[in-house]
UniProtKB/TrEMBL annotation:
Residues 210-233 are annotated as: Disordered. Residues 223-233 have a biased composition (Acidic residues). This is DUF4194 domain-containing protein.
Amino acid sequence: MEQQIRTLTARLLASRSLPRTDALVRRALVDEAFRVDLDARLAAVGLQLIDNPYAAHVAVALTADVHEPVFGATREYAASNLGLTRDQLALLVVIWALIILPKRERQVNRQKLADDGQSDMFGKDGPLEHGEEVSGAIVEASLLADFAPVLGHKTYVQGKLLSRLAQLGFIERKGGMILEGPLLDVLLDYRTLADRIIYGTLGEVLAQAGHPPPARDAFTAPEPDDADAEEDD
């Protein structure tokens, strides 16, 4: 077990994220003793495993007590410990809202992208889906048409903003489409962002348009039940 923990720790540090389907990741998610040892190994160097059951990947991040010692000396930390600029952060939140909010609704309702919710009467008893089954894509040209005038211009958004988000692993760009990257759902806190977007910014936009705000629990993603927890067995 020692060698497997060393291997998994090294791979997490080298890759920043790993899919939940990976054999050692799966063991970390279901084997309590293995997870305890892994957490201890990571904690010894100020790291923790980030595991969001709704995300298709796991990742490592700094523990709260080392944020300031590691990032406090740089000016960028005031906005982002990844050094993202304000316009990069703004676009990241927009993309997160366009991809992750509908994805989470599909996951909670056990719906796939091509499912209208009526094809399987037992769908809500099915396993929690990840990946392309539930995660949609954005047409890059449409995103540019909507937001490039606000964030600068098309070349700037493509070359400086989208390319940086792709480099960091938040998004993937394929064939003119923007897809969810391995870190988009696992590093951005859904409960914090969803609340601020849906009942904050989006609520204000709907109110200005004369529409009622969404119900308070409309997009609340509950903790996965026992069936979801056993999914990784």
